[in-house]
Amino acid sequence: RFKVIPIEDAKKITGKTAEYYFITAMKYCERNFLPQAIEEFRKGLCIQPTHLPCRFNHGVLMFKLGLVM
């Protein structure tokens, strides 16, 4: 069964990786700062275009905000 790990328990990431931007974006999502979250997902995708969590969540937020159809 899938277990959700709270953001606070995520491993400490050193350097600016796609995973770093993913975690930062998820923190913005928790606070409902969606434009900032989209920007963080985009930064993660610039570093690693195949990073699935960034790619998926970026698309979901873009759709929610009506930026893609």
Shape: globular
Strand content: under 5%
- Count of individual beta strands: 0
Task: Write down the Rg.
Answer: 12 Å
Poorly predicted runs are: none
Class from secondary-structure proportions: mainly alpha
Average of the residue pLDDT scores: 85
Task: Count every helix, treating DSSP H or I runs of 4 or more residues as helices.
Answer: 3
Task: Bin the helical content.
Answer: 55-70%
Sketch the major β-sheet: none
Oligomer: single chain
Order of helices and strands: HHH
Instruction: Kindly report how far apart the N and C termini lie.
Output: 33 Å
List its salient traits:
single chain, 69 residues, mainly alpha, 3 helices, 0% strand, globular
Description:
- This protein is mostly helical.
- The protein contains 3 helices and no strands.
- It has helices at residues 18-30, 34-47, 52-64.
- The longest helix is centred in the middle third of the chain and has 14 residues, at 34-47.
- The radius of gyration is 12 Å and the shape is globular.
Q: Secondary structure elements and their pairing?
A:
Blueprint: H1 18-30, H2 34-47, H3 52-64
Summarize the structure.
The protein is an all-alpha fold.
